[in-house]
């Protein structure tokens, strides 16, 4: 137990900050060598005094839509064990975001969400929450594979990644995608399989909830995941225009898909993700444009709007839950 605590201290107070500084420095070095840096910065300043400034407002509204779609997904998914309002689901999603920012690959979001479930139903809700995440992961991998195929010639021409590793990535993701898709549409097998294992049968109640998940519901979750993915693509496109990045909608969308694919594969912590995402974005979007400053500002803006702001709101909501419970205990 002492070892685990020491590891946690090492990661939070030493490794995390060192990694952040190193990645931030690498991005800074890439930006400062941009040949037309002053011109790009001038274009960005001018865009804030034009009609393009409304793009930022639209991106914020799309953030609300983004998490609203995720709320609808979660509300549908857990409907078999507890019916909740859309507002309560939305609050649960934001609370989950606040937990997720300091955990690898945002695993902590499950904790924030189940706080809004009734006692006795929280652990059962985790398997359904994972089903929601799985639907988004399948869409991310599928779109990423298509984006990778779309940009394949440019990746080969740039030579920043060897053709061998690109093919390994492509074939590997396709294989994982097939396995996950089959598993996704056969979730009921998992519950039945666990029931048959004597040592695992006492934990079967944790996954029994997925037995009631039917194909129609799974397709609904996938459809909402696709819609949410397009919202991300539109956000990137609007911010690209705001920051003077000359990338067409279709090219930008598939390049964004590749960025999300790489981020889904590489383990990361959300608080450090902005730098890691920035490094990847500079490489991928750099295949299509030389405006590295605009790419960096777009990446930071998306991270702040889609993650940091919701996490701050979610932390206030969690504080409200604790205060409400303490008052109930006092009364």
Question: How would you describe this structure in keywords?
Answer:
0% strand; disordered C terminus
Short précis:
The protein has 331 residues and is mostly helical.
Structure description:
It is globular, with a radius of gyration of 21 Å. The model is unreliable at 322-331 (pLDDT under 50). The two termini are 37 Å apart. It is built from 13 helices and no strands. It has one domain. By secondary structure, it is mainly α. Helices cover 77% and strands 0% of the residues. Helix 6 runs antiparallel to helix 8, helix 6 crosses helix 10 and helix 12 (270-285) packs antiparallel against helix 13. The chain has helices at 2-32, 37-47, 54-77, 86-100, 109-114, 122-150, 152-158, 163-184, 187-195, 215-242, 249-265, 270-285, 292-330.
Topology:
Layout: H1 2-32, H2 37-47, H3 54-77, H4 86-100, H5 109-114, H6 122-150, H7 152-158, H8 163-184, H9 187-195, H10 215-242, H11 249-265, H12 270-285, H13 292-330
Helix pairs in contact: 1-12, 3-4, 3-6, 3-10, 4-13, 6-8, 6-10, 6-11, 10-11, 10-13, 11-12, 12-13
In helices, the fraction of residues equals: over 70%
Count of DSSP H/I helices: 13
Tell me the domain tally.
Answer: 1
Structural class: mainly alpha
Q: Provide mean pLDDT, rounded.
A: 78
C-alpha Rg (nearest Å): 21 Å
Number of strands: 0
**Shape, per Cα inertia axes:** globular
Biggest sheet layout: none
The run of helices and strands is HHHHHHHHHHHHH
Assembly annotation: single chain
The low-confidence parts are: 322-331
- Whole-Å distance between the termini? 37 Å
Quote the beta fraction: under 5%
